[in-house]
Structure formats: structure tokens, C-alpha cells
Design a protein that fits this description.
319 residues; single chain; 18% strand; 8-stranded parallel β-barrel; 4-stranded antiparallel beta sheet
Length: 319
């Protein structure tokens, strides 16, 4: 079990991988298009290209994990296992997987393969983490919905497994990937790697039967559940490209779930996450730019190094 702190950066292309490594990444995760949840936003369609990425990362003494985290339909199982045979030969440091059946088949056919359990498996409690540890998974990537107290309890209950958590990037408004909005709006399945991020589209909010546009107030996170007053009447959303198609919505003290949550930035919480048991700090964004990869890698590299040295994390990193 590795207990070294790790900055894990996305690699949507070889060029992005080069920037991430140059600016301080300890490890890279890269998706295999047909079998990962970033099917459209990376260039690793051929084994030769994946090999080039693996060799490049290893040449700098860094690690690379290949993401194969779809929930497969029957027609993808044979192709997946054929592709896994090719990928195992490339000797990445681990495979990030979700589907229990595919994990079982991989462990049976390729027992040498190191498996990290994807956040898409919605790992939200210690009993689930213990199950996967007992099954031979070496690392669990925790659900983004967890708070630090929950993470600490998982680590306390199951201390002998590596834990990875997202620290930067977008957060799914549902349990990760378990959303039908993309499929409903654009026939693109989130768990097949083609999410259209419908929760981030432009919506207008309308109130009551008259469908009169209404400006809703904002509230701070600390106000949640404090003085919540349920809304009265009926409310609707209108998506920008679907005029006059009104979608009924509801809300509770946590808000309206069709709306995307704020993006994550946990540079202020690195110390707390480390103390809670996290060893791998993961940044989201395989479809982001090289500029994004560079700046974010540099900021979190400095943050992690400051934490290791016992010094204060600069306010400059938070802007």
C-alpha cells in the first residue's frame, strides 16, 4: 500500500500530459475512448498512442493510470476484454474501473492488473470500501459527494487501502454519472462516456401557472437548512434551445437538483484531506486546455509541497 502523497492530473492528450508532468504532476490518468467516460475528449484511440503516453510518463519516473470505467452493455464485453489484453501489455500502473463484472473478468484473466475503483462506482461508505479491498482492489476513488468527516470515518474503518479524492474541477449534480438529463435532452448516455453536461446549459426559471419569468434569490451554503421556507406554487425551467418547452421542477432545503453545483476547489483543504486518509489528490478535466493543466498542476504542486514542508499555503494559489 502506497502512502506517498500524489498529485494526479488528467491527460486528455499527449500534449496535455507533457504540460501536466512539466508543472508537477506525480501521476496521470488517461481514458481509452470506447471504454471510459471521456469518450469524445481524448486522442488515445490507438494502442500505439497509449503506449507513447505510458512510455513518456514512465520516462519521468511518474505513474499513469488508464481509465476504463464504463458500465458495459452485453455488446461491449468481448471488445472490452480484447482491448484489456492489449492494454495490459503496455504496463500502465493501474486501471481505473467501475463495472463489477468487468473487474471480475479482468482479475480472472489478468491477475497481475492493478485495479483502482472509479468514482463512478459511487463509493460512499466504509462497508463498500471494505468489500472492494477484500476483493483485491488496491485503491478506491471516493464519491465526490462525501465530506471530510465521512472520508475520515472510511479511513478509520478501512485503514489498509489507498484512498483517492477529487480536489478540483466540476462536480456532478447527481451521484457521479447516475444522471438521465444528458440522455433525455440529447440521447447521450452519461455512463457510456458521452455526457453532454446538460446541467450546465442555460435555463430560465418560470413561476406558477401563468409561466411568468421569476428571478429566484441566491443563498450561501451555510444557510442551507437554517431558515428554509418551502416555495409555494409551481415552477418550471425552459432550456435556451427549447423555447416554450416547460419542465416542471421542485426543490427542497438543498436546492433544485437539475442545476449543476459549483465547481470544486479544495486547495484550502489539502491538510484536512491528508489527515482524513487521502493519499491521491485528483484534478478533473481531461477535456480542458493545456493552459488549465499547467496552472492547476502548478498550484496544487505548490500546495502539496507547502503542506509537506509544514509551511503556509500561499493565498496566491487560491486565485
Amino acid at each position: 500500500m502506497n502512502t506517498e502523497l500524489e498529485l494526479l492530473m488528467p491527460g486528455g492528450s499527449l500534449e496535455k500530459i507533457k504540460y501536466a508532468v512539466a508543472y508537477g504532476a506525480d501521476a496521470i490518468y488517461a481514458g481509452v475512448p470506447r471504454y471510459s467516460l471521456r469518450a469524445r475528449e481524448n486522442e488515445f484511440f490507438e494502442a500505439e498512442k497509449i503506449k507513447e503516453a505510458v512510455d513518456y510518463v514512465h520516462s519521468y519516473g511518474k505513474k499513469i493510470y488508464l481509465t476504463c470505467n464504463i458500465y458495459a452493455h452485453n455488446n461491449k464485453i468481448n471488445g472490452f476484454m480484447e482491448a484489456m489484453g492489449e492494454m495490459v501489455k503496455l504496463k500502465p500502473d493501474a486501471f481505473i474501473m467501475t463495472d463489477p463484472g468487468l473487474i471480475a473478468l479482468t482479475k480472472e484473466k489478468f491477475p497481475e492488473a492493478v485495479i483502482h475503483l472509479s468514482t463512478q462506482a459511487n463509493n460512499t461508505n466504509w462497508a463498500q470500501v471494505k468489500f472492494w479491498k477484500d476483493y483485491g482492489v488496491e485503491r478506491v476513488i471516493l464519491a465526490r459527494e462525501l465530506n471530510i468527516k465521512e472520508i475520515r470515518e472510511i479511513h478509520d474503518k478501512v485503514p489498509d487501502i489507498e484512498l483517492e479524492a477529487f480536489v478540483h474541477g466540476s462536480i456532478c449534480m447527481a451521484y457521479s454519472g447516475r444522471c438521465l438529463l444528458s440522455n433525455y435532452f440529447s440521447y447521450r448516455d452519461a455512463n457510456q462516456g458521452t455526457c453532454s453536461h446538460s446541467c450546465r446549459w442555460g435555463f430560465k426559471v418560470y413561476a406558477n401557472d401563468a409561466l411568468k419569468e421569476k428571478e429566484l434569490g441566491k443563498f450561501e451554503a451555510d444557510d442551507v437548512m437554517a431558515d428554509y421556507i418551502p416555495l409555494e406554487g409551481d415552477f418550471y425551467l425552459e432550456e435556451g434551445e427549447r423555447k416554450k418547452e416547460f419542465l416542471p421542477i421542485d426543490e427542497d432545503e438543498y436546492g433544485t437538483y437539475i442545476m449543476n453545483s459549483k465547481d470544486l476547489c479544495a486547495v484550502d483543504y489539502l491538510e484536512e484531506l491528508k489527515d482524513a486518509g487521502i493519499t491521491s489528490f485528483k484534478v478533473e478535466g481531461r477535456n480542458k486546455t493545456e493552459y488549465y493543466a499547467s496552472l492547476v498542476a502548478r498550484a496544487y504542486r505548490k500546495g502539496i509541497d507547502a503542506m509537506k514542508n509544514g509551511s503556509r499555503i500561499s493565498d496566491e494559489l487560491k486565485t
